[in-house]
Amino acid sequence: MKLLHLPAQQQIYDAAPRWLQRVLVNAEAARREWFRRHGDYRRLVAAHDPRWYYRSRDEQEAWQLAQLNRLLAEARRRVPYYRRTLPDRPLSHLSELSALPLLSKEQIRRDPFALVADDLNRRALWPRKTSGSTGTPLTFYLDREATRNHQAPADAMLVALGCRFGEPRARFSGAYVTPYSRTQPPFWIWIDLYRQLQCSAYHLAPQFYPHYLRALRESGVVYGTGYPTSWHLLATYILESGDQPPRLRAIISDSEGISREQQAVVEQAFGCPMVQTYGAGEIGQMAWQCEHGRYHALSRAAIAEVVDANAQPVAPGETGQIVVTSFASTGTPFIRYQTGDLAMVAADDCPCGRHNPSWLAIEGRIDDRIKTPDGRWIGRLSHVTKPGVGIKESQIAQVARDRIVIRVVPASDFVPASMQAVIEAARRYLGPAMQIEWETVERLPRTSAGKLRHVVREVDLE
Ligand SMILES: [Zn+2]
Question: N or C terminus of the chain with fewer C-beta within 10 Å?
């Protein structure tokens, strides 16, 4: 997610002196915090005490059923889409959830306000835009209740790792820190309000690794967050060079996944545990890895089903789509929301002793990465297609060392001229040495698991 999202804002930011950039970034942070951590936020965090997950499965499910019935009744009463689609009686068992209709991204795209309670002031909502895992833009709206409740479980989980929100942290992400054309550090900015060193994931070229590490050491950060691929790049460099890592208590990654082997490299290099998390802007953080490497669904925040093509739960040991019913808000509810991500369900209880459902792996999140001619690895690029109008699906393919093709499946309202902004967005991250083209195609290939990969590398550059 961008700190600054409009082109005009970006130009003002780029031209501003460093002190003013810091003011601008903090102003945006303040806007977000008004949504996120406000009012009785401490009470919300306390409600997500991580020790709850050690309670018995029966106790957790009984609590979930009561919570679910409250959500269904309120959603039906307040929200037009659910008024049409939900039954008017409570469920008597959690398993009855699988009889309720699924919510698709397509449904939200058709009429986002049908998913918003009638009684909410639309101007007080937070409009969010994601490109989703398929690279198809999606706009949806969240109320403050939702944003606060998306944040609280994550802040609560930090405590189990000896960290606390408010302590200095470092974050690697695609947030806009500085123009691509910048070839000298700093590629980071300090956000006072979060006490966060926001680091650009896009400027991580080998010659700058030592600069990033020095910035991390000197900022006094005690934990790390963000793209795991960025942390992995630095970890590889630390192990090769012997350069000194910052003293971190934990790294909690999000937005994408890395393999267990890569995760072990990060833990070795930084000398601290790394936890991978799973979530999405629509539903907040949904699952955290435990010390055994499994992803535990945060059952206090949502019900996460893993379903087959018929929307029925898959058998243990099998892979299916993650479908989420979030308890975050009754004003902007997501009930049986199809995330498009795949998880493999564990067949047995996790040895860690937690009784919330666990997944052995999240599949379809490990995108291919693109390597730029100047040696940078670029992971998540899905947002570059956001400015495109009428894109049904898209895929960014690296077809040669210095050539990218953006493949687009056009919808009926496709506007070819809007692709210019897409190319420019891609250019900002991939640099001037990369040729960037686009083409329309009738369909995009799927993996054997049925997943569309948004970024693929079709040339071997390892
Ligand atoms: Zn576990």
Answer: C
